[in-house]
Amino acid sequence: MFINNSSKCFALLWAVLLFSGAAMAESSWSWQHPYPTGSRINGIQFINNSDGWIVTELGALFCTDDGGVIWEELYRGDKKLESVFFLNTSEGWACGEDGILIHTVDGGANWAFTYPSSQDLLSIEFSDENYGTIGGYGGTILRTMNGGASWQYQGSGITSPIYDVSFVNPSTGWATGTTGNILSTSTGGAFWEEQNTGISVNYTGVHFIDDSCGFAVGGDYIASTDEGGNAWSAVYQQSGADFSDVDFSGDLGAASGKDGVAVTVNGGEYWLAETLPPQPPGSASAYYLYSVSVPGASRILSAGLSGLIFSRNSSGDWSQLSSHTTLRNLNGITHFDENHVWACGNYGVIMASGDGGVNWESQVIDINFDLEDICFPTVLVGYCVGSSDVGIILKTVDGGGSWTDITPSVPAENGLYSVDFMNEDCGVAVGSAGGIVYTTDGGASWTEKTGFGSDGLTNVRFGDTDRGWIVGGSGKIICFDFNSDSWSEQTSSMSNTFHGLFALNADTVWTVGWNGTVVRTLNAGLNWETIAVTGKDYSDVWFDSNGLYGYFTGQQFGQTSDGGFNITHSSYGLENLLSRITFIDFNHGWGCGNSGRILSFAENTTGITEPEHSIPQAPGNTIFSSPNPFSVSSTVSFALPAECHVTLDLYDLTGRKIQTLHAGNLPGGEHNFILSGTDLPPGTYFLRLNAGGITETRPLIRIP
After folding, report:
1. What is the predicted pLDDT for the residue at 332?
2. Same domain membership, residue 583 and residue 448
3. Cα(224)–Cα(661) distance, integer angstroms
4. 537-584 pLDDT per residue, tens
5. Is 623:636 a contact under the CB 8 Å cutoff?
6. Are residues 81 and 179 in the same domain?
7. pTM of this prediction?
8. Same domain, 530 and 634
9. Are residues 592 and 634 in the same domain?
10. For the chain, how many structural domains are there in total?
11. Sheet holding 657-666, edge to edge
12. If pLDDT is split at 50, 70 and 90, which confidence band does 655 have?
């Protein structure tokens, strides 16, 4: 049932599960590169050459109305989305992790949420506006006959995942099943039978053109049938293809997988692997395309790893709709002001933006070098360090337009990992095997500093004077002072490798590293205290001017409001996404990571918070029953923050109402009802809670 903005009771009961498109656009982190997302795209659907949608591993849904040139984020949640299906430009669904199902009837301006299953849902398809099917883990098959107002479990007879479903009419359909088999129904899903294809692969995609002709893909094979699945044969084999999805429109068909796309133009009789546009050398992503859509007789679209989206035109030419520049891993990011941002990464890539990250230009310095860190003491003068067989230091005097190699004759043996300058002349670079070099003349000459062991040094940062710090392996912390030319090792109680380093001023410094270790000094390093060990590896840290509000990135993205003693990890799906961060202030910054990822951050003074309308929670926060399964009785519980009219009914698998547990107004607060199993035959039932006109359904199993 669609969630209506006017349902006040529902908004309270479900912790305001209704989103507006505008609210989603104001979310904290947003993609700047690749475009429109660097997250893995799990599903793509186009209903014509212009209107299409994608869903991502990080729980975002995007749409386009110009064939994929411009994309708009319609939704972002904390559950990954696996599949998307739109009937038209107004009404559509997406499903995914933990049984989430989202539905819109106004083109994504508003979304309704249900959890018709506790299993991850992998595929959704509607044969018309009323009849729809969902497949998921545990052999889950869900069917609706009323446009998604309610969903019923169907017995697939298997426990392996249902990766894909295909119906040619409300009665006749197929679903991927156990290895080597396809499930078939001619009764609208009331009964499912296994069809043995004779090819022992794990089928992940299935598509039928009509009730006779269909195709299934998995592993290295494309299989077809012209007997409704009663007999199958392999029509194409490609070693290492790992095909994942298949789609048709008329005689034009496509199967996507690890190596790209195989295409047929004659209804599946003959297939050919087609060449996609090459990625730049060193790009982190192979062509692993998880989903394919054929909206008409002249176009194919496919999407997958690292936000890759490709399009094929009527002439058979492929073009890339996303990731317009490099997908090389980015290791360092910095800014000079709100407009000028730079990032560097593997295979010698340096990226620059002069408009706050809206547009990026990239250049390759030397593909043999991985660039690790970058800094700009002025808007024109910048430095970048990296490694190959030896370290490298680069300098620009024109804002990154051109770079000059200023590597000293005494670099770190195997590479340089970090660089920082207090002004355009005085700077330090550090790297492997305890390597330290510094300059006071803008890199014209360098001095090597030795005597601090052989542990790799990972980060160097200046405070607000000529004092700075270096951190690295085995808990290494080194303090230096350019004014007095003093260099000394300091003692912390930790032996973990430190990676992130932030110096607020000449006295207050944080360093973070493996196992979520957070160490701080307030007196220039005379004393270092361990203030947190979260168990989440951190790679970078930043604090605002008062030293209380800060951000942490690494295995998870976290924030603190007390200097780091207590860290809250966000639910924005940023795990292992950002390796480095740079902030102007608490409300404005950027982060970078693997596969060319650059994200920008913009928020109010409260920092990372949930959107104005919060993310729906998993089943159990609204209505649940315990025990489930049950034999004698089960307690049905739910909470109402405000008074509203409530009905609580029990239905069987056929949709017949068996019992009404309550009908009438209830006050705010927790409510419990006892369901007796005395008169119920063993089987699967559905509890349906209607609060303020909004319905939620949960399965309930009665055992002998």
Report:
1. 97
2. yes
3. 50
4. 999 999 999 899 999 999 989 999 999 999 998 766 677 889 999 999
5. yes
6. yes
7. 0.78
8. no
9. no
10. 3
11. 657-666, 644-651, 683-691, 694-702
12. low
